Every structure is written in structure tokens, then in C-alpha cells.
Structure to design on (131 residues):
């Protein structure tokens, strides 16, 4: 299969990376996050700049409500490999104004169990146990 690359990483296709973000969405729902429909007045675009590399990607991902706020799945393209990050805001007003904070990013290629741990940490369910 000839899948589109992320244009920056050897052996990592955009489709593979998006599947890992889909897994994060599934885990979030299993943990009690509920998708929320909110009309946004901006495009959900990720822009990554690393040295001479500049890449923008539109990632239309839903917003999720969890006990302590609102979350959205995003990405960060670090030099070594792409990472997944949850964005957080405590109010809908901040989401609408695109004032969301990044939780700690984590590599896309962690095991499913480790991604689950990272999502729990980002949601405040469990403490971070990383070194």
C-alpha cells in the first residue's frame, strides 16, 4: 500500500499516525470522555516548525468533555518522530477562542497499554509515572 508520508519521517505514514490518534479517541471514550458538538469559527490546523521544516496539517478532530474540562487530540512533530498531545481548556469559551493548553505530548508509537497510561495522565485520572 502506498500511503502518504508525514513528509518528515522515514517509515511513518500519515494514515498510520492518524490511526494512532483514533486509538487515543477510543481510549478517551472508554474512560468516560464524551464528544461535544461545538461550532468553531476557526480551522483546527496544526503547524509544526522544526529547523527548515515547516508543515501545516488540518486535523478536524472532535472536542471531548471530561469531568474537569474539554479536550481535543492534536499532534506535535518533533525531529525524531511525531507525537500525540491532548489540548485542554476548562471552559467552552476558551475552546471557542482557541485558548487551549497542551498536556504533555507522547510518542505515537508507544504500545497500546502505554498510550492508555498517557491518556489517563493527560486527563488527570492517574499521576505521571515517567522517568
Amino acid at each position: 500500500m502506498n500511503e502518504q508520508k508525514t513528509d518528515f519521517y522515514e517509515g511513518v505514514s500519515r494514515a498510520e499516525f492518524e490511526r494512532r490518534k483514533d486509538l487515543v479517541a477510543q481510549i478517551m471514550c472508554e474512560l468516560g470522555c464524551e464528544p461535544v458538538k461545538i461550532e468553531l469559527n476557526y480551522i483546527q490546523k496544526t503547524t509544526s516548525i522544526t529547523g527548515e521544516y515547516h508543515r501545516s496539517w488540518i486535523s478536524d478532530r472532535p472536542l471531548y468533555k471530561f469531568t474537569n474540562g474539554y479536550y481535543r487530540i492534536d499532534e506535535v512533530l518533533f525531529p525524531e518522530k511525531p507525537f500525540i498531545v491532548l489540548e485542554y481548556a476548562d471552559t467552552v469559551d476558551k475552546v471557542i477562542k482557541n485558548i487551549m493548553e497542551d498536556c504533555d505530548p507522547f510518542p505515537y508509537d508507544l504500545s497500546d497499554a502505554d498510550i492508555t497510561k498517557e491518556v489517563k495522565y493527560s486527563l488527570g485520572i492517574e499521576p505521571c509515572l515517567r522517568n
About this structure: The chain is about 25% helix and 30% strand. Residues 14-30 form the longest helix (17 residues).
